[in-house]
Amino acid sequence: MNRFASFAKYTIMIIIAIVSIIPIIWMISGASRPYAELFKYSNSFNIHLFVPVQPTLQNFKDVIFNERNPFLTYIGNTLFVASIVTVLVLLINSMAAFAFAKLRFRGKAIVFALFMSAMIIPGEVTLVPNYLLMHNFGWLDSYKALIIPSMLSVFGIFLLRQFFAEVPDEILEAAKIDGATMTRTFARIVLPAAVPPMITLGLMTFLGNWDSYLWPLIVINDDKKQMIQVAIAAFSSAEGTDWSKILAASTISTVPILILFLFLQRYYIQGITMSGVKG
Amino acid sequence: MASPTTTAKPAANILPKKNRNSFLRGEEMTAWWFVLPSFALLLIFVFYPMLQAFIISFQNYNLVGGTKSFVGLDNYKSLMTDHSFLASLGHSFYFAIIVIPIQTCISLGMALLIQKKVVATGLFRTLYFIPVVISTAVAATVFKLIYNKEYGLLNNFLELLHLPTTNFLSNPDTAMNGVIMLGMWKAVGFFMIIFLAGLNNIPQDLYEAAKVDGASKIQQFFRITLPMLNRTTAFVVIITTIDAIKISGLVFVLTNGGPNGATETAVFYIYQMAFKQMQMGYGTAAAFILFAIVLAISLVQMRLFRNQDY
């Protein structure tokens, strides 16, 4: 009986695993086979549904060197924006988190409450006014619109503040006695100790920006400046039937993220767990 | 052993009073400099737009025509009788009502399956989580092809089981179910991780005691696991509800609201109004109504879960 139960359990686990990754495997295999082959084996349930008969990199080449849809440019744009946002998010929000965790100043409780109250303000409501703000600043079609409003991470402040709060006061006092300024203490002692939560926040910020769709769709009109997600969505509706190329474009934009995740998943999962703790 | 504090405190007291004050003032200055950048961003990109949204929602605001006039409650009044807005709310609620129970149960089930640290559970956790890191646009694009009637993976599978095949996305009656399946595929792994954290926080001796008392696995689940998970479940249900009612990203790529407006959700409608028809005041008023509905539901849910708390 017990063996039956454990057999059933593993069967269910494997089925869920298959459902979770089959679309991705299918995407990658479809991207690396000729167009005709994709349809030839689509109605059969043999191994070639997933394993290419004639593996090819042609689809990737076509997509990368496409003049109308320069995917390399889109990936470069997105990498540029997401990296800058990540660095600035880490810098700006760790400073605020440190002040909230360790420094004494008047109005701290109120200011912190203001930050936390921002968590319930939905982006949908502020979408139009933020667009108008970009319009008035003259930032439409510029990366400023993608970078500057994204530099604030209330969740990040919340996450890092909890971590900084556990740094012993004695260490800060000792640094103070030694004549170090607060800024120096922060940069030399507190930040180096906070590498794990910084990786968590950095990873979440980077992936969030890599994935962002609606905001770039609204503020960026110039095709050459577009972000990868908008480009893929546009590509998949424009190229309609050219599945191999659509899958190749999707694969190119997914695989780097997948690898990054596999190496750093511990930190990512830590971040989600932290967000669950606050509830 | 003299701890650093005991040496620090007298040292601070030796300093003249005025000096200490100036030091505190120095700390206060530093603190404000540290908070200033993010506080400025908060005011400019969150609070000011929120205030602005409130004002715009009472205006007839058209960016293209450059017109802007105060119309009082007109936007809100016409939204109350606007069929396509009400229909879009209906679609969002349909999505939410299906997704909340099913997705919560599946993610809890997955967490229970891989909770015990035995062979390969780490691998399964990674596999289950992969859909979460796949971007919305890519996931929707791939699923669009999977749903295809002639060549798609899903219909192949249905055929294999001798079930009728359909083109999910071009039939108004089933298109939303296609969105729902994709939505759950992408989100269950995320909530599984949250449930996993909740499960790991339950003290193991409770189960030991229950075993001694002869409680079955099922009794243990309903008498220990579920009650102890109450706060985690509350968090998952509330977040799922908010996310589900605000669903939009998947719809943009998977169906673009079609066929025949069958998958037009509330946020999709807001976007269409504000940025396609350039009715910014009207769209923002719709966003406020949606916000009020979501807030009200969240508050009710919090109250319900709190009543169950021990």
From TrEMBL, chain A:
The organism of origin for this protein: Paenibacillus rhizophilus
Gene Ontology BP, a term: transmembrane transport
Cellular component GO terms, alphabetical: plasma membrane
CDD domains cross-referenced by the UniProt entry: TM_PBP2 (cd06261)
The keyword Transport belongs to this UniProt entry's keyword annotation: yes
Keywords: Cell membrane, Membrane, Transmembrane, Transmembrane helix, Transport
Name of protein: Carbohydrate ABC transporter permease
Recorded topology in the membrane: Multi-pass membrane protein
UniProt cross-references to Pfam families, sorted A to Z: BPD_transp_1
Automatic annotation (TrEMBL), chain B:
Protein's membrane topology: Multi-pass membrane protein
Main subcellular location of this protein, as a coarse class: membrane
UniProt keyword annotation of Protein biosynthesis present: no
Upper taxonomic lineage: Bacteria, Bacillati, Bacillota, Bacilli, Bacillales
PANTHER family recorded: ABC TRANSPORTER PERMEASE PROTEIN, INNER MEMBRANE ABC TRANSPORTER PERMEASE PROTEIN YCJO
Keywords, in A-Z order: Cell membrane, Membrane, Transmembrane, Transmembrane helix, Transport
Protein name: Sugar ABC transporter permease
Record-linked PROSITE patterns: ABC_TM1
GO cellular component term of the entry, any: plasma membrane
Annotated ranges, domain ABC transmembrane type-1: 89-301
InterPro entries from the UniProt entry: ABC_transporter_permease (IPR051393), MetI-like (IPR000515), MetI-like_sf (IPR035906)
Transmembrane segments: 30-51, 93-114, 126-147, 179-199, 233-254, 280-300
Superkingdom as given in the UniProt entry: Bacteria
A GO BP annotation: transmembrane transport
Family of the protein in this entry: Belongs to the binding-protein-dependent transport system permease family.
Localization, UniProt: Cell membrane
